[in-house]
Design goal:
Layout lengths: L11 E2 L10 H12 L10 H21 L6 E4 L2 H18 L8 E5 L4 H12 L3 E5 L9 H7 L4 E5 L13 H10 L3 E5 L11 H4 L3 E5 L10 E5 L14 H4 L7 H39 L4 E3 L9 E5 L5 H10 L2 E2 L15 H5 L4 H5 L1 E5 L6 H22 L1
Parallel strand pairs: 1-11, 3-4, 3-5, 5-6, 6-7
Antiparallel strand pairs: 2-8, 7-8, 9-10, 10-12
Helix pairs in contact: 1-9, 2-9, 3-4, 5-6, 9-13, 10-13
């Protein structure tokens, strides 16, 4: 015990939506690929073919988790690249057909990740038309509003599956039906869904889907893009014909091996993950509401990924609470890790209709397989002490 602070015996990690600790089997797969399968998979000799077999196995593992064909999986450096590849690729194809950028229209939601919103903003500044559909108070995007936003010149709809801030699951399958009825392609950022909930591309019906290994116990710097059979995207990177000519450059074989192993483990652990993380999330939510009765749970009225809890605490600065919990050994978040340095109100919560003050008073807990009930209870105890103290400071 340090005066003024309760020190939990071991640091507690409640920020799994930002990243996860790679599993032991993933570390083994990465290490083996680095040490033994070091060849360039494009080479025709034994070393290159050994590396290619590692990639083939991983591609099959990713495809199996998603219910896709193996030739529908393109390896990338992660979801940011995959999202940019789809958005810029669909636009580039339309331009190659002789259409002007100002004649093209894309529909997205106001609660997408910045790796979707930023390339759209860049293209919008050059003339692209973009419609941003808001979310309701429950955190869900209304599929009918997406349908109403479709125009004759709409070339793409991009809507995520599970929100990174709230965990709320979006009605992607319904959006796909409306979009396809109008001949519009659909992209889904499924980064916070893959490995947490069942994700079947055939049931969703999407044309493109992005995932990132480090969000479900795989390595950082590797991910994938599902590209439905019959679709093709121009490569963002020029130089080679790797990845079905959709992603030039020598592949990250160790990372890809880790991604494949993470997908195989996720397929085995999905049911356990949902029960374990859902039980802990509900315990944490109940505990917070017990010690802070006026706390607000964002997205509680909608289906959520089992591990995610976004809590609004009136009268408390979210950043101050995060830092105080960090001093006591608890790692949480005030929102997406990609925007954490900004300390601006969450665009997700603003997209749900929250005021800036409400958005700045929120914190996010995202649980994982290694977390325990004892850690949850200790965090609730810490919140019971910290929230009144911070309210006095900021009151």
């Amino acid at each position: 015990m340090v005066k003024g602070f309760y020190i939990w015996p071991m640091p507690v990690y409640f920020d799994h939506n930002a990243t996860t600790r790679p599993s032991f089997r993933v570390l083994q797969a990465v290490s083996s690929a680095m040490a033994a399968d070091f060849g360039n998979p494009s080479s025709q000799h034994w070393a290159g073919q050994d590396a290619k077999r590692v990639m083939d196995k991983a591609r099959s593992q990713v495809a199996s988790l998603l219910g896709a064909r193996v030739d529908e999986i393109v390896f990338t450096s992660g979801a940011t690249e995959s999202n940019n590849m789809v958005i810029r690729g669909v636009v580039a194809q339309s331009l190659q057909q002789g259409r002007a950028l100002r004649e093209l229209h894309i529909v997205t939601s106001a609660i997408e990740h910045k790796s979707v919103l930023s390339p759209l903003a860049d293209l919008e500044s050059q003339g692209l038309q973009v419609t941003y559909v808001p979310a309701g108070w429950d955190g869900r995007v209304n599929a009918r509003q997406v349908e109403a936003s479709l125009e004759p010149n709409t070339v793409l709809v991009s809507v995520m599956l599970a929100n990174n801030d709230t965990g709320v699951i979006q009605p992607v399958d319904e959006i796909v039906r409306f979009a396809h009825a109008r001949g519009v392609l659909v992209h889904c950022d499924a980064v916070q869904a893959v490995g947490k909930i069942p994700v079947a591309v055939k049931e969703l019906g999407v044309d493109f889907l992005s995932l990132s290994a480090h969000k479900f116990y795989g390595p950082k710097g590797v991910g994938g893009c599902f590209v439905r059979n019959g679709k093709q995207l121009p490569s963002l990177l020029l130089g080679g014909k790797q990845e079905l000519s959709m992603r030039a450059g020598t592949e990250n074989v160790p990372g890809i091996a880790g991604l494949g192993e993470a997908c195989a483990e996720a397929q085995t652990n999905l049911a356990h993950y949902a029960v374990h993380c859902g039980t802990l999330r509900d315990r944490l939510q109940a505990g917070i509401l017990r010690v802070v009765p006026d706390a607000r749970i964002y997205g509680e009225l909608a289906a959520r990924a089992a591990n995610t809890l976004n809590v609004g605490l009136p009268g408390v600065d979210g950043m101050s609470l995060m830092l105080n919990l960090d001093l006591e050994g608890f790692a949480i978040s005030v929102g997406s890790a990609c925007g954490a340095g900004d300390h601006e109100p969450s665009h997700v919560l603003r997209g749900m209709g929250c005021t800036d003050l409400e958005a700045l008073s929120t914190v996010r807990f995202s649980l994982g397989l290694q977390n325990t009930e004892a850690e949850v209870d200790a965090c609730v105890e810490a919140l019971a002490r910290l929230v009144p103290r911070l309210r006095r400071v900021h009151g």
